[in-house]
Structures are given as structure tokens and as C-alpha cells.
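Re-run with default settings, no changes from the original entry. Doing this only to confirm the output is reproducible before filing.
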Amino acid sequence: MFSRETAGRIAPATFEHDPKVFRYRHALQPSLLGFINTVTYWIPCTSMMLMPPVPKNTQPYLRHRVLALHGKEYYIPYKRSGAMKEFVDWLKEIEELAHDLYSESSLFFEADRPLSEFLARMARDEASHYHLMGSASEYLRRMKPPVASAIDLGREQTESIETTLKEAHGSLRQQVLSPERLLDTIVRAEWSEWNAIFVYVLNTLKKFDKRFQYMASIIQTHKSMIVSFLESHPKGGPFAERVRMLPKVWDARILIVEDSEPLCLLLKDLMADHGDVETAGNGKEALEKTRKCFFDVIIADIDMPVMNGLDFYKTAVEENPRLQGRFVFCSGLITEKIEAFLSENNLLYLKKPFQVQDIRNIIKQISTSAN
């Protein structure tokens, strides 16, 4: 049943905190703008309810779900334009389907705590991916001319992916979904064109804006998290190799900021197996690099000429808050004042001399938790 709270615009926070009402609940805007949004929202919705269903075999059109009421889904047709935005809008729908499945499955498999926690993390990731795709959709909407796609969304492929998730969701609601069936569904979905299209969209968009490099980074972390769980869970072994073979969305980037050239070169060699490594001799050089591209981990000395490590950190995080939590400082001179600053900002640090394994462990910690 409709109420005033269904008017207005979707509240992003609603999806994160109460996913069960994500699809249908909207935040009321108590203002003239809210009234205008309410009117512009209901007029097209009313028109859609009077429209006949769109035939499934209507080839020139894609069906786009816009509203679900009383168990019925209403679609509005639009012609395929070959625009990248169509891919992004479809990916948003898939992220929503996946979120619902993982969130409800987490509660269903409460007795298996590792599986339940894994599914809860998966649901949070899909919620995050949904909002990332929302940002991408808005970015593409503003681009003139529109970003074109070299391929088209085929109904057979898109419906196959949707069916995989919906069938598992149906089994869950009938309480007949087994852990093995759920893990198989996750792997089949990640192995499907869903992953390939996601890679295609991100590889295209990150050429236009470095913010999409961050998106690619967290998607890659999502994949690594799945592999790690499957390898550790008794029932996940057969599926781990299939997911590991998925193409990479992103190669991790590491920035080493160190004024000692011998140490800088040593760290570069030691970190080479963790990703693509770049170096800078001081904070100013490093700042120029962070302005050009996104880094997953930044290893920085503190006492350096031109710009020290702490000033570099303050400026870099102010310009790009997503770098918060990606720094690790390595210094032989950590005073009480510096240590207090590091503690207040929850920053990781190592005192020189440090063990190689210590910095490897910290890099792994940052890579798995910062996203």
C-alpha cells in the first residue's frame, strides 16, 4: 500500500541500513523540491500502470524495471542506444538481486557462522557496488556526447544471469537451499557475463576519470575475498579454482615514498609480487602521483626533504579521502608527538629497522580491509 514515505527520491542510506525496504521505500523531502519530485515521480508511475505489459519478444527494446507493486512488475520500454549507461543501469539491477539473496541467506545459514559472516560481507559489498554503479550512471548521464558501447546487451545473456540469482532466491524462500547450491550460484554468477560486463564497464570508465580506478580496486578486493573464503571453507574447495580464473578488474598499485634511493629500490623489488609499484623521493613527488591515479597502498617515510611524509598524508587525504587508511609509515625517527598523531588518525607504522614480513603483513591487511 502506498504512503507518503514512498514519495520523493531513493535515500542511499536506506539501502545500507535496511536492505529489506530498499526497493520500495523512499525518503520524503519536506520542501518545495520534494513536492516537485513527488509529482514528477507519480505521474509517470500512474501512466505505467495503465500501460499493457511489454511483450518479451519485442526485439528493438530492452525491458527496464522501474516499479514493483502488489507482486506485479511494471516496465517501461526504451530503445537500445548502444550507450554505456545501459550497461551500468542493468548492473545496478543485478547488484540489487545479489544483495537480496546474500542478505537473506546470511540469516538462513546462521548456524554455519563462517558462511553466514561471508554472506553478510557479500551483501555489504553488493550494496556498495550498487551505489558505485549509481555514481557511474550519474557520471555517464552528464557526459556529452554519451559514452558509446561497442557491444549490445542481449536478452538471452541478461536473463540467464538474472535467472541464476532468482532461482536460488526461490529455493531460499522455500527453505530448500543448500550451502553447496548457494556457493555454486555465487560462482556461476561471478563466472558469468555479469563479471565480464563489469570488467568492460570499469575498464572503459577508468580511462575517463581516476575515481573509477577506485571502483576497480574494490571490485578486485571483492573477488579476492570470495577466493579466500572458498579456500578456507570445507564445502568451498571445488569452487575456488573456478573463481580464481576470473579476469582481473584491477592490478593493485603500490606507491613507495622514500628519500633513500637504495632502500626505495629494495622495497620496490620486495613489493613487486603485490602489484604495480611506483616510487617517489619526497612528499611533493608523491602528491603529484596520487593526483594522477589511485593507489591501494602507500608506504611512506616521514623525515624527507621538500615535503615530509605527514604533510604529504594530510594533503593527499584532503584531496582524496579514499586514501584514508591506505598509508603505512616507515621511519627511524618517531617522536612522541609523531606517534600521538599516528595514533589519533589510526595510521599504521613501522620503526626502522623493520622486518620484511612485517611490511608484507601490513600490505595484506590494508588490501583486505581498506575497501
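Residues 220 and 248 are 7 Å apart (CA to CA). The chain has a mean pLDDT of 75.
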